[in-house]
Amino acid sequence: MIIKNSIFIKSSQDVSHCPKTDLPEYAFIGRSNVGKSSLINYLTNRKRLAKTSSSPGKTLLINHFLINDEWYLVDLPGYGYTRTGKSQRGELQHIITNYIQKRKNLSCLFLLLDARHKAQEIDRKFINWLGKNGVPFVIVFTKTDKLSREQAEKNQEAYRSFLLKSWEELPPVFITSATKRKGKEDILNFIEKTNNSL
Ligand code: GTP
Ligand code: MG
What we know:
With 198 residues, the chain is an alpha/beta fold. It has one domain: P-loop containing nucleotide triphosphate hydrolases (Rossmann fold, 3-Layer(aba) Sandwich), CATH 3.40.50.300. The protein contains five helices and seven strands, in the order E-E-H-E-E-H-E-H-E-H-E-H. The protein has helices spanning 36-44, 86-102, 121-132, 149-166, 184-197; strands at residues 6-12, 25-30, 62-67, 71-75, 106-114, 137-142, 173-175. The protein is globular, with a radius of gyration of 16 Å. The mean pLDDT is 95. The protein binds guanosine-5'-triphosphate (GTP) and magnesium ion. Guanosine-5'-triphosphate (GTP) binds at residues 30, 32-38, 52-54, 56-59, 77-78, 142-143, 145-146, 177-179.
């Protein structure tokens, strides 16, 4: 699939304020600073469609982007970090989980994991929560330009064995680097196939 056009539609504070639509959507979630907004810019071939920052906690709202007039990409706030401490962190967590549980046209969640780390506690907890709530998700490893292939494979293996403790089958896994522009085609093909199957 080729992305011919991508339009920012709106930022919402809560799932109830999100665009009313039946079009399928794909939301990007993961620890703060993992590279969600950067990946959206890379996929859409736009430098500043989604706002990025080198310090965590940049995205604080639910951001909808309409792609090819046919489906939505959604940039979510990250979990695990906020500048203003615990109460805002709780609030963001609530925005995210509420969105995931209530958004009817959410086709698939893209869970972004930093390729530099082995299965981290906060990500494992989140994955378990997705499992308990029956949320369909795929895994995207980000920032693979920052480590060797061997190291990346070791870290991916750690996730695989963690997942196989609870799941019989592993979700699809995508290997990406927004900086080195790697992994776009596989992700867009997956979205195209999912759209066609709906
Ligand atoms: P929050 O909105 O704060 O949750 O963060 P985010 O997950 O949207 O991360 P963002 O895209 O803003 O990127 C965070 C930082 O990581 C920025 O400094 C990016 O330039 C950097 N970054 C993102 N993707 C990559 C990548 O593939 N490789 C490298 N080397 N850096 C990346
Ligand atoms: Mg962001």
